Hints:
Layout: E1 5-10, H1 15-29, H2 32-48, E2 55-61, E3 64-73, E4 80-88, H3 97-111, E5 116-122, H4 128-134, E6 138-147, E7 150-160
Parallel strand pairs: 4-5
Antiparallel strand pairs: 1-2, 2-3, 3-4, 5-7, 6-7
Amino acid sequence: MPGDVVYRNRGTDGLVAARAFVERAGAEEYEPAVSAVVRADAAAHAAAFDPEHDVLLTAERDGRPVGVLLVTRDAVDPDAARFNWLMVDASERNGGVGRELLFRGIEACRERRRLVLRARSFAASPAGPHLFWLYGFRVVDLVPVMVGEGTRESILFEKRLSPLASPEA
Length: 169
């Protein structure tokens, strides 16, 4: 019987394994042209990772990643965060791994006082859009993404958090 899923907040120490997981899961999930977009996106986010401002969450079973979420600071809006790499291994789907990663990511944003959460998902993703809806994200735009010689729809989501009350002196 496999061990329980362990959730970890990782820094740069988890970046290589998380990126490899995203690339592998993307290759298993999508056709080659879409998988190439996922690989390029993973490389760009890994290169820009800033452990001071970004949050890398992993779900691991028996020491291997089975889910990943990367939350990055929005480069333009200091009150905003972007949810990237929400990916769960096919064998772990419908077991709560994605929900737990998303919950932990939202809580990390609350702690960092990020008030606007943004996410995107390919419309063809089997679970991504559902999870974002489940946690109160709303569709704000549909954007075509170049994939191979054509385009695919990418759904842009947004969620607004209430500011935390300031502690009384």
